[in-house]
Amino acid sequence: MNSSTKIALVITLLDAMGIGLIMPVLPTLLREFIASEDIANHFGVLLALYALMQVIFAPWLGKMSDRFGRRPVLLLSLIGASLDYLLLAFSSALWMLYLG
Question: H/E element holding 46?
Fold first, then answer.
């Protein structure tokens, strides 16, 4: 396995860990902003938005990685995901959860 493949695997692992860590915490974050009976609806919408953003931005990121190389795009994506997780962790309003 070459070094580029190893780096891509590590980045993918870190991203998957971030997703795995935020999903169990998200209902607790939602409880701070909305009533208990609406948590499942908002959780579902947030998950759907996450999937929708992946569908929308995956082709664009693929084009950018063809243009600039895989490593810079993967690293920039990982930095963006890290900033997103920080926004989720320190959100003070429901709209911030949706933005993240």
Answer: helix 39-68
Backbone angles phi, psi at 90, to 5 degrees: -105, 20
Q: Which tens digit of pLDDT belongs to each residue from 25-67?
A: 888 888 888 888 889 999 999 989 988 988 999 899 999 999 9
8 in Cβ contact with 72 (< 8 Å)? no
- Long-range own/partner contacts, residues 16-20 (CB < 8 A, 24 or more apart): 18/81, 18/82, 18/85
| C-alpha span between 62 and 55 (Å, rounded) | 11
In this structure, which amino acid lies at residue 38?
A: D
pLDDT at 88: 82
**Which stretch of DSSP H or E encloses residue 10?**
helix 3-31
- CA atoms within a 13 Å half-sphere pointing along the CA-CB vector of 78: 17
**Tokens, residue 24:** 């169990």
